[in-house]
Protein 1
Amino acid sequence: MDQAHALLLMRYNAWANARLYDAVGRLAEEDIVRPRPSFFGSILKTLNHLIVGDRMWMGRLTGVDSGHRRLDEVPYADFPSLRVARENQDKAMVGWMERADPIFIAETVLEYATSRGEQCATPVPLVITHMLNHGTHHRGQVHGLLSQTEVAPPPLDLIYYIREQ
């Protein structure tokens, strides 16, 4: 994965998050926290999982501990504070990618411990691919949960982002 392609995908990730959060923000808070049949149990918990995962991976990539230990943590109990955190996280992720060493991106094998304490080694291009795919996966879950509300889920396809550029 070259850095330019990774940066394009990181910017797309931020764009898709912003569109999804705009849609979720049109819901009443009780609809955002309402228990729903899904892996994490609500829109809010699913979005919290996504930011926790992003922070854990960015912590591994930067060598700065994220402070998160479990993938089901809910550091934000309300949507407005989660939204601010998401915007800041996306800015940080894009900024990191803009400044990252291209050799690190292309050639480094990242050694890290999983949330279960397992030691792993994964090439950085695959870590970045996983991180971004993880975001797509869980945005898709929230997209489906939005379909259970009066707010229509927005189109999040990569091609729409590319056409807007």
Protein 2
Amino acid sequence: MNPTTRDRAIGAVLGSAAGDALGAGYEFRPPVPEPTPIRMVGGGSFGWAPGEWTDDTSMAVPILRTLARGLDPASEAALDGLVAAWADWARDAPDVGIQTRNVLTGLEARIASASRASARQEHEYTGRSAGNGSLMRTAPLALGYVTGAADEELRLAEAARAVSDLTHYESDAGDACVLWCVAIRKVILTGELDIMAGLDLLDLDRRRIWVDRIVTAEHSEPVDFTDSNGWVVSAFQAAYAAVKRSTSLEDGLISAVRTGNDTDTVAAIAGGLAGALYGASALPGE
């Protein structure tokens, strides 16, 4: 891996974690308009320390560790390991999404098959399961598929959906993870921002739906999705709008946080893509 590609790959991880920590202090508050500064101050609903990440990055770290061990993240053994790690973390974590907590606390066993069953049960009980909790943790997956091999996009898409399905049953969540991961992979390898790069990896009947959603995001401001950014589609749109309009990694993260409401998650999602676009070296020390 050449230095530029490595910088982008590391940027995807650090950008997501920094966005998470930056947004932590502004979570569930109204949008923050210019010229009010956005600072790494911590605080928020859970009294985070300055620079402390939340559940977004806590759930991403086991994915990173899976890749570091050389495991195939789509394999049942690796998925079992993720479920066990997340369930152990969720026992005393201060901030776990409602849907994710319900899935993990309802497990018959700490294995992937039980988690998928619990996710489906949660969906059937509530009638919906497309929160942003699987998209928020998905950026690290792209790092396992950056050799440029011919089948990597497909394998990445399969892994992204498999990891999403552990806690989020609805297709919107899996689709969003596929599109985001493939876009991160492409920008790591080429420097090109192309959110539609993974479109052909979605089911045929889903592609037009996502094109319309992406076009809407391209013609909107991140704040236009504030009221519903706990929904994976709106979080995706807000994060993409922030990255698309950004002039730097810092600018993209700040724009994502300015949206208000689920600020840590929108900024974590945006940070994965923006970090890959600008590289770790573009992240200000503060």
Protein 3
Amino acid sequence: MTAGRQDIWVDFGLSGLTKWFAGPWVGEATPEEIVAGAADWGDGAYAATLLEDALRLLESPLPTRVIGLLWRAATGLPYDPDAVGPDGRAWLRDIVRICTGRIRRDDPSFTPVPPGPPVDGPLKEAVLEEIRGAAPAVEAAVRSGGAEVVAALEQVVVQADPDLGFRLFLRVLKAYLVPVTESRYQWYHELGERFGYHELVVDDGTLQSVPDTD
């Protein structure tokens, strides 16, 4: 767990980066410029979390196609099987390069190292349970390809990192305006606390909460 995450009051790492690519400035900057802007956020506070997520996915056994699919889903782009091809890992390597450069502005001797082992145990099972429970709503919101998106989120949790998987799951819910009941909404905040998030990482005002029906 990266120290100081709770002080980052926006969604961080790779999940947070997807939001940067949903902003109105996307057509006015190159992808590399957007990543550089994110890495520089908070005087560089964001760069380490983004680097960690990118390295973790690069070293995971996740298929490159799944990485591309997750990126599109988390940014709210329409499902397009032809757009999730072989460049997912190349994109991650670009992110690593940009973030490493930003960190070296403050620490010239910095060398990226593989991230530590991911969270396992109860938190992993809790995230999987939430993804599976929300599957029908996610599939309905995403429409074509929704089942693949759900499967990809599960793969991230199992094969890469439950922490990143949970943040990408939340980002998909927000991107596709998937409603969650008030009880699930509160539980997501509890899970976020266990992962060490600031409360705005779970909901920045875009997570759709609806009353419980029971």
Protein 4
Amino acid sequence: MSPTEASAILGISRPLVVLRMDSSDLPFRYVGKHRRTRLKDVLELKTKLDIREVAMDALAEDTEDLIEAHGL
């Protein structure tokens, strides 16, 4: 799978996919000059990103509750 195809599944830009590849967050190999990754690896990264997004949403909600309850 190309970085462009992976970016469509992950919902992030192609340059961010390449950055994830370079930082070893998304395993890949070269086919000629082109980077390729497996669908399995893309879906695993998507699961991690989705879990992180849920946690960030919960943290933001808790922060809003603290602001409303304590006037912080």
